[in-house]
Amino acid sequence: MQTDQGTSRCPQCDHEIPVDPQYVTWCDECDWNVDPTGSTHQVASRRRRREHKLADTLYRELEHGEIRRPGWTAARVGTYLLSTLILVVLPLAGLVGGIYALVSYRPLWIGILLSVIPFGVTFLLRPRAHRLGSDTHVVNREQAPRLFGLLDEIATKIGTRSVGLVELSPYPQIGFIKVGWRFTPVIRIGLPLWAGLGPQERVAALAHELGHGKNGDGLHRWVVNSAVDALQEIQMTSRNDESDEYRLELQTYYFHGYSNNAINSFLDATIGSLARGVQWLLTTADLRAGQREEYLADRRSAEIAGSEAAAGALERYTLGSTSYRAMEQALRFNSDADPLEAAARAVGEIPAREVERRLRVSRLRETRRDSTHPPTNLRAKLIRTRPARDPLVELEIEESQVIDKELAEPARAVLKELRSALR
Q1: Could you identify which of 134, 185, 280, 327 might form a hypothetical disulfide with 343, taking C-beta atoms 3.0 to 4.6 angstroms apart as the criterion?
Q2: What is the 3-class SS of 7-20, one letter each residue?
Q3: What DSSP character marks residue 183?
Q4: How far apart are CA 159 and CA 150, in angstroms?
């Protein structure tokens, strides 16, 4: 729906603009006031222009060409080599060094002291499979046969593995991960975002995530993200934290005369700085491959759900904060209202002009050098500029309602937990 409460003139270009007191007044001609709150990331204008140029270059490259999987470019080969160094070579070197110290130095207590650091490196940098937390709310095939039937149908059309579990989340996100050393595919469904999607948009969202599985993105993301997690572990261990009791005790007994702050500062300036630099190098080298992965998954989504549903689902993602706030308010202040119905209603009431504004905001905020997702507005635009596709998998309204009934009981558990946290 689009309300019309009057018009005004843009103070920047004098263009006539609609005014609705419920929403931000902005100019669609010059983008005046399109993002009144601004981004939480303060970025220099020169860097922002460079980031926009990089995003536009990739978009133009894909607009008229074929969207292929990221090839074995020098950047991607370098990413894998650097990740392998972090995940395999360094932990193995630490393990060998620790064993050597234990075997070679006597008395034994000296060998034990010398082996602490190499064994610590091995522990911090060891590869770890993704695990679902003990408090995670999961849904299996027996609980939701229609949902898993839809997932199986989409997976078959795409040509990828079927989903093992579905994780329900109270946050506005839909994601794909592989858990355990068998790399079992798991789809994460954020309830407020899911509630605001139409039936065919739900197919598009699920197809996008399963598209990542078909493209091998899950394994690639695991390699890179595991390396990044290891580097973050090093940064947390070496950060300048005066409240670290263990380090204070270490200083008291072994480094008497040096302040805990001095030890922290030294570790953060040396080991921490090195870890931050390597992390920046890794994420920067992987940037273009990550953004190509998203565009390719969008193409899979359009093939399965249809072009308009795929683009519409992406636009709905920009309304995630609205759906979450509506759900949160219902949980806080209105015990009689259905929180998910409130989320869906809030999204449905947003006028088209406000959706367009948020898409433009995504252009300003999401063009980040350290983001693997291209700006949402460019992703939706790319789908619409390419030849339209009819859906291969269709979900009727009645079937979508059946899925909602299947998820109702586990969803209540998720919302009950969130209500307790909010209170």
Answers
A1: 327
A2: EEECCCCCCEEECC
A3: T
A4: 14
The b-or-e profile of 317-352 (16+ CB within 10 A means b, else e) is bbbbebbbebbbbbbeeeeeeebbebbbbbbeebbe
pTM score, whole prediction:
0.82
The predicted pLDDT at position 215 comes to 77
For the stretch 378-402, pLDDT in tens is 899 899 988 888 899 999 999 999 9
Q: Identify whether the C-beta of residue 68 lies closer than 8 Å to the C-beta of residue 74.
A: no
Reduce the DSSP state of residue 250 to 3 states and report it.
helix
What pLDDT does 206 receive? 96
Q: CA separation (Å) from 59 to 73, 207, 287, 294?
A: 18, 21, 14, 12
306/395 Cα distance (integer angstroms) = 12
Residue 115 CA to residue 105 CA, distance in Å, equals: 10
Q: Distance between CA atoms of 119 and 96, rounded to whole angstroms?
A: 9
Statement: residue 250 has pLDDT above 80: no
Cβ contact 192:324 at 8 Å: yes
CA distance 210 to 223: 18
Long-range contacts of residues 347-350, Cβ cutoff 8 Å, at least 24 apart: 347/195, 347/196, 347/316, 347/319, 347/322, 347/323, 348/196, 349/1, 350/319, 350/322
User: What 3-state DSSP class applies to 345?
Assistant: helix
pLDDT score of 262: 65
pLDDT at 353 over 50: yes
Those residues whose C-beta lies under 8 Å from the C-beta of residue 345, and which sit 6 or more positions away, are 326
